[in-house]
Amino acid sequence: xxxxxxxxxxxxxxxxxxxxxWLETDPADIICLQETKASSHEVNLQKLEAxxxxxxxxxxxxxxxxGVAIFSKIKPDNVFVGNGHSASDDEGRVxxxxxxxxxxxxxxxxxxxxxxxxxxxxxxxLDTFFDYLQSLRKKHPYIILCGDYNIxxxxxxxxxxxxxxxxxxxxxxxxxxxxxxxxxxxxxxxxVFHPEPHRYSWWSxxxxxxxxxxxxxxxxxxxxxxKLSAHLQDADxxxxxxxxxxxxxxCKLTPPSK
Length: 258
Description:
Layout: E1 2-7, H1 11-16, H2 19-23, E2 30-34, H3 46-50, E3 54-58, E4 68-72, E5 78-81, H4 86-89, E6 94-99, E7 102-108, H5 116-136, E8 143-148, H6 172-183, E9 186-188, H7 189-193, H8 209-212, E10 220-225, H9 226-229, E11 232-237, E12 249-253
Parallel strand pairs: 1-2, 7-8
Antiparallel strand pairs: 1-12, 2-4, 3-4, 5-6, 6-7, 8-10, 9-10, 11-12
Helix pairs in contact: 5-6
């Protein structure tokens, strides 16, 4: 099972930049998208369906904002939208699918960069979501959590840790949430295979040279529960794929037998 998580920063814009042509290269069996900024009826789906993908969407109530989707060549047993947190569900932040014993969660974590109110919402969201995940594990021990977490976990995950120590996405409380997640039975699939520095998944669009000079942040993750970590085969980041200010992150695993 090959999985990609990708914040496309607007699916319609990504399609104009060659997103469908990239899908033709068969990068994965399951593509989890964040920040689609569109509903399915606003997108030309003929090419996607011709490539063999089922597609499931969960869009925000606010037009052109947030939203998640799962494109899959493997038919899911079930698909669920939301996680019962109304403020989050209104913004279309979580979609889930079952593949055999695996529960796949695709989540677009809030950003706090627009001010104190959204940073407070982010903290509330993180606390609520952590409790939800831990409760869900009692019934579903094999979980994959894909998404744009909007958190750079450690200094190795950001190009300028000293200069960003007060920046949303690298605040102590956010990084502590990641610590807590990984200390409570989750594994960061990328770091299982890649301990090296300077590997990022997002670059600010304010200055064109930022991506060229790899001054980025690693804020996109595919984490798995400990019971799934032994099934991991590979993980990577694809910085040369450029339909967005993010790039795709990837993992490959062997599903547990039914």
